[in-house]
Design a protein that fits this description.
Layout (H helix, E strand, L loop, with lengths): L12 E3 H11 L6 E4 L6 H9 L3 E4 L3 H15 L3 E5 L3 H5 L1 H10 L3 E7 L16 H4 L5 E4 L6 H13 L5 E7 H5 L1 E3 L16 H13 L3 E5 L1 H5 L3 H11 L3 E3 L27 E5 L16 E6 L13 E4 L2 H10 L8 H25 L8 H11 L5 E5 L2 H9 L8 E2 L10 H11 L5 E6 H7 L3 H6 L5 E6 L4 H11 L13 H7 L3 E5 L2 H14 L3 E6 L14
Parallel strand pairs: 2-3, 2-4, 4-5, 5-7, 6-7, 9-10, 9-11, 11-12, 12-13, 14-15, 14-16, 16-17, 17-19, 18-19
Antiparallel strand pairs: 1-8
Helix pairs in contact: 1-2, 1-7, 3-5, 3-16, 9-12, 11-12, 14-15, 14-21
The structure holds thiamine diphosphate (TPP) and magnesium ion.
Length: about 550
């Protein structure tokens, strides 16, 4: 912390950057890290972070700054923060902002902005960001007056961190953020709008679960954000409900809990009641249709109510409270024979599919089968290891084959599916959990989007093990295009590129692996290396991840 910083600066005059960050500090946001890429328009924000002793992680592309801020939120369950310079800095962050919006990740993005007093005269990087970001943020506003900065920032923090969560954006005209004002005592935080809980409806769903012969729960990211994992486990255990998980919901019930299922997911079509909690009824969940099952949707705000799917009930409100309510109602059927039969069937399916996987996990094929990479990785992962997935088919294998035992340990881009999250998410995971293993599973195509930010990992001493499935193609596009058109274009990458040498040139280390038996020792060297380390595994381009649909 610099000498200028004092525990409380209320009453002192300071520039707009300090007003913004001190507000975040005083509001107890928990934010102490700023991801950024420099620009004159945000000097006051950088100065403030410096004065307050925050960690400043300067990256090589603004999209990495926003992905990293999102990764920080996902791994720490505190809001993430990125500061982007005016114009191109902000627009470079937009794909990442959009991903966070669709994920409902609490995030603050602070932008520079050309000065108000010259607005319209054609200042450098003059752009009105608000119309551009408004459709991909929960809240976006320009701070037009220095003394109003605390109120604006507080509102943005509130919007980002209360259900339904999401990114909030504030931009600061140069003359506003450079101006001085007194830091007033924090205005009271706006009251949290709790949706009125419908206790009767909760009771009806509890009774429905009691009557169900083949019920199931699908849990998503809002269970994680609501810190409702214990309530979910309690619900599952009292009603003896099988739980499937997606997105950041993974690990809310540990993968080795007897009621946690993943491979048996096709049997969801045979369920009679499916309760989907804290995740939209989107393409990942066949748009909310599971055979003939009655669907109950639990959402954290009215805005999440599905309009496209016919649900038996939609419960709106605090996800934890609703799960606690459901756990406390009914549960009498949990010991009946039908329920046991259903759980047994799911268990058998789960076990059978896991047994089938084993062959690929141990495959001795050359070129290397991508699943073999995970066979080796799985053996080496601690329970709390954080795994980041950025790529196509190679990462689909990760999603299937890596089990999550704790929430917040599997970071994938979510329904927006934006490639390029890799280095940002990995940097954040490493910062949030300095004592854990952090592994980034990367497609060779995907790696190109953030490869230069290996430099960020190196400069900030963030050792991450990168495992790259190098098939020399955009696999998740090449195979489908061949399937639909009988040929493909724009789907080839260079064969056998030495991405490990790219990482070494940037100050990390790595190696190329051609044979299955070399994978394990290479990973061990990576974990021991203490530097950003890329294991460049040459994988079989003819292997396509088996999937039924990839677009809708
Ligand atoms: C920013 C962005 N551009 C394009 C796509 C479309 N896309 C999805 S998967 C994929 C191929 C990924 O290839 P690679 O990372 O090499 O993984 P592989 O499928 O070969 O394992 C592409 C181009 C996307 N999702 N995001
Ligand atoms: Mg590839």
């Amino acid at each position: 912390m610099s000498e200028n910083a004092s525990p409380s600066a209320v009453g002192a005059s300071m520039h707009g950057g300090l007003l913004a960050l001190r507000t975040l500090e005083q509001a107890g946001s928990g934010i102490d890290t700023m991801f950024t890429l420099s620009g004159g328009h945000i000097f006051p924000l950088l100065d403030a972070a410096h004065q307050l002793g925050w960690r400043i992680v300067d990256v090589r592309h603004e999209q990495t700054a926003v992905f990293a801020a999102e990764g920080m939120a996902k791994t720490s369950r505190r809001p993430g923060l990125a500061a982007l310079t005016a114009g191109p800095g902000v627009t470079n962050g937009i794909s990442a902002l959009t991903g966070a919006y669709l994920n409902g990740t609490p995030l603050l993005v602070l932008g520079g902005r050309a000065p108000v007093h010259r607005w319209g005269s054609g200042s450098l990087q003059e752009l009105d960001h608000i119309p551009i970001v408004s459709s991909v943020t929960k809240y976006s506003v320009t701070a037009t007056d220095t003394s109003a900065i605390p109120a604006v920032v507080l509102r943005a923090l509130h919007e980002a961190t209360t259900a339904h969560r999401g990114p909030a954006f504030v931009d600061f005209p140069l003359d506003v953020v450079g101006g001085q004002a007194e830091l007033a005592p924090l205005p009271p935080r706006p009251p949290i709008q709790h949706e009125e809980l419908d206790l009767e409806a909760i009771g009806r769903v509890g009774a429905l679960l009691d009557r169900a012969l083949r019920p199931a729960v699908v849990a998503g990211g809002d269970v994680y954000w609501a810190r409702a994992e214990q309530a979910l486990v309690d619900l599952a255990e009292t009603h003896r409900l099988p739980v499937f998980m997606n997105g950041l919901g993974r690990g809310t019930v540990p993968a080795d809990h007897p009621l946690a299922f993943s491979r048996a997911r096709p049997l969801l079509k045979q369920a009679d009641v499916v309760v989907v909690v804290g995740t939209p009824l989107d393409f990942r969940l066949s748009f909310g249709r599971f055979g003939e099952a009655l669907v109950v949707h639990v959402v954290d705000s009215e805005s999440r109510r599905a309009t496209h799917a016919a649900t038996e009930a939609t419960l709106v409100g605090n996800v934890r409270t609703i799960l606690e309510g459901l756990a406390g109602s009914g549960g009498t059927a949990s010991t009946n024979a039908d329920r046991q039969h259903w759980l047994d069937r799911l268990g058998e399916e789960e076990a059978a599919r896991r047994a089938t996987e084993q062959r690929e996990l141990e495959s001795g094929a050359h070129p290397i089968h991508p699943a073999r990479v995970y066979g080796e990785l799985r053996k080496r992962l601690d329970r709390d290891a954080v795994v980041v997935g950025d790529g196509g088919d190679f990462v689909s294998y990760a999603g299937k084959l890596i089990d999550s035992y704790e929430p917040g340990t599997f970071l994938e881009p979510g329904p927006y599916g934006c490639l390029g999250t890799g280095m940002g998410y990995a940097a954040a995971a490493r910062l949030a959990h300095p004592g854990r293993q952090v592994v980034a599973c990367l497609g060779d195509g995907a790696f190109g989007f953030s490869a230069m930010d290996v430099d960020t990992l190196v400069r900030h001493r963030l050792p991450v093990v990168m495992v790259l499935g190098n098939n020399g193609i955009w696999g998740l596009e090449k195979h489908p295009m061949r399937f639909f058109y009988g040929y493909d274009v724009a789907a080839d990458l260079r064969q056998e590129t030495r991405y490990d040498e790219v990482v070494a040139a940037l100050g990390g280390a790595g190696e190329t692996v051609r044979l299955p038996a070399e994978i394990g020792p290479a990973l061990d060297r990576g974990f021991r290396s203490g530097v950003p380390y890329l294991v460049n595994v040459l994988t079989d381009p003819s292997v396509a991840y088996p999937r039924s649909s990839n677009l809708a």
